Fold this protein.
Amino acid sequence: MPSGVGAFLSKRAPLCFVNFRNAVKIMLKFTIRLFIILAPLTSICLAQVQLENPDIIGEEEQKIVQTRQMMGTWAEITVYSQDVKSANIAIDSAFDAMTAVNGLMSAYNQDSEISEINRQAGKKPVSVSPQTFFVVKSAIYYSEISDGAFDITISPLVRSWGFFRKQGRIPPQEEIDQQLALVNYKLIELDSERNRIKLLKNGMALDLGGIAKGYAVDQAIEKLRASKVENVLVNLSGNMYAMGHPKDKEAWHIGIRHPRQKDNLLGFLKLKEKAIATSGDYEKYFIHEGKRYSHIINPRTGHPVSGIASVTIIAPTAMKADALSTAVFVLGAEKGFQLIKSKDGVEGIIVQIDDKEELSFVMSEGFKKRFISY
Ligand code: AMP
Ligand code: MG
């Protein structure tokens, strides 16, 4: 191109022989030609800056992925955006929101509001944040609609079976019976006016492990939305929310894990503006005399649920998907399917497993339509 500039100048060399009007004409032509020549050079320079400095806003959408350890597990946020710097700031605030939920609601954290409620069980009510109050109140709603299958007062049994400290054991029936007397969501007293929660019996304890991760994902999504991030997938240990879509795709593709083959999928589905959660008997479990004991406990029997390998739920919010996946896991195929069908915007798959480890599937209509099996 510089040779073009030279050629142009040499053609116009006898400038002194032209009149004023011609001189203006020539100047104008010169300026236009110079612009045509320099414009592409300018954009090449900008493109180079853009590549060297990932914080600059460009035309190309970039994939930004951040992974962090939290809540005793891992979280991953994937964003597609032209503005990498703003996206990273938004992702940081989303992780902060999830960390805050953990700080308030983890029973592993002695300073959490849930730990304080547990310490004061049978003694006095505890003032909590609106967030903790909301999650506990919602948990009670999921207990009611699942006929007690979902119950956050399950903690004493989770501890007895050794899942709290990850040292599985089979408790004597006597111990199970004692703990069962402490498991009853109706013994959670809520004071809505003062955001206070009291467990009515000494020895009771709350465990939000079946619902808080979903809530944390919803909180993260709220932050990302407020930051104007449009295309994002938040994944907290299998509790996900899919907003917008990745570059060149119309929706997020979410794989459903095979419950017995870690690296294989049962299939996948396309998701947009929806949450999805899976409860699986492969997440936390121990094997004793050839039998698998998993971390989801039936509040009626006091024993870990058997016969279900996994439940995946699609719902409008991640908290709903989380709570319902645990509830349906406890309810089993028949009653679980009825619960899925009864809720608007909720779809799901229940994977049953028999003694010979053969799988069978129960799927709602909406799930079937989205699901592409392998
Ligand atoms: P999820 O992976 O969401 O199904 O949650 C499982 C976790 O929820 C367990 O590790 C326990 O902390 C807790 N949990 C176990 N059984 C129940 C139950 N019946 N209702 C509510 N939470 C439960
Ligand atoms: Mg759950």
User: Anything to note?
Assistant: The first helix runs from residue 2 to 11.
